[in-house]
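Ticket #4471: structure output looks truncated?

Reporter: J.K.
Steps to reproduce: submitted the chain below (190 residues) through the standard prediction queue, then opened the result file.
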Amino acid sequence: MPDTSLIDQINDILPQTQCRQCSFQGCKPYSVAIASGAANINQCPPGGSDGIIALASLLGVDPKPLNPQYGEHNAKRVAFIIEQDCIGCVKCIVACPVDAILGAAKQMHTVISAECTGCELCIAPCPVDCIVLLTAEPIANGTTQYELGQHAKQRYEARCLRKEQEVVEKAERAKRKRAALEKMKLASLL
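Returned output as attached by the reporter:
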């Protein structure tokens, strides 16, 4: 396993869209792959040439062009839900890695534009094609790309933690339910 400090430095350079275009399950796994030599530095379309140059500088290698196999660099975009077409299936909510979509089952959904990373992961699961990508508003108030990435990383990590807790809680509920059923069976035998 490569040095965790190097992995963290690589991860800090990546845009934190968690888009999986690099062929890894998010920015952190891609960082691990780069640090261990299993992936190239030119697989992140959202990071573009600026990201490749920063990675090359960190690792002391020559920059190279973005590998078109993984996509092309575009201006930052955000998802937008055409609300009158939304059927409230919640598939986009499940797919969003940063919890930028609000809604409930059988209710209209909406995207919090300021939180959307533009990963596009919500588009494919939508059964009614009501999600489109729009060019994001320019960054305001002197916020840097790095700060936006760190904010997105915090949201992603919070979502992952919440998902892990849900799994533990579900297992605990199932365990309690099994124990209650066993207790009922035992009581019925007496």
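Triage note (M.O.): checked the attachment and the full token line is present. The chain has five helices and four strands.
Status: closed, working as intended.
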